[in-house]
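Supplementary Note 3. Input sequence used for the single-chain structure prediction.
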Amino acid sequence: METMPAGLFARESGRFVPDPVCAGPWDPGAMHGGPIAALVGRLIAEHEADDGDWFLSRLTVELVRPVPVKPVSVRLEIRRPGRRLQLIDAVVLDPDGVEVLVARGLRLRWEDNGLDEEQLAHPNAPDIARPDGLSSYAHTHERPFGNFFMDVLDVRAVDEAEFVGMGPAQVWFKLLVPALAGEPVHPLDRVLTAADFPNGVSRILDPLEHQFINPDLTVSLHRYPENDWVLLDGVSHCRRGGYGMAQCILSDKGGHLGTSVQTLLVAAAR
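The predicted structure, written as discrete structure tokens, is reproduced below.
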């Protein structure tokens, strides 16, 4: 695309207006899961959080209906209040007030427990090629319309043959715009937008012959990314009964961040 948007969403009169680039690959009127996951994750992490620093440890997103590329509102509720641990629910409503997404976040208060992290077992940086020396995916693939969420991502595969082929793959993602216009790119923006791609990068079926749609997404984290790049090490599993799952290990240049899991609805393409 010629110019980058100011953000994936703009705040406007209590609503969140998506840029057209939030669209998924097949329908210009429906969002990709990454942008809306990042939006609800940010809102849950920051909801009534003035009394201390909170860490979003887990986010579960249920895609009840296709989320339209139209202004949406988000209803937030603390379901399990607590001084150290809280559960917060988010409901996304379309312009007609119809629920299109429900999410639940588990957040933990940051408190110094005296541990020396240098003495703890911690995975080393991924022993693979760094994104700086890899080719950027050029978005030359055909699609039936112009705007697409991957246009605001710098995507670099460790092995390009694995990325364009079938099977497990390791792919670096860098988000080029913030989730919310006028704000800096938050570490959650980076990891949550990338976390919805396991079924795409590790596909094992031809998308012209089968659909492998994820109706949900669960991301579990033990730290936020400390640099611009997030690595997905993904694998997919599909069964004849019409179901499957895709999962990935999430890392940055410094090491392990967490995991992402998608349930898959597997069906013959219509």
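The first helix runs from residue 33 to 46. The chain has a mean pLDDT of 90.
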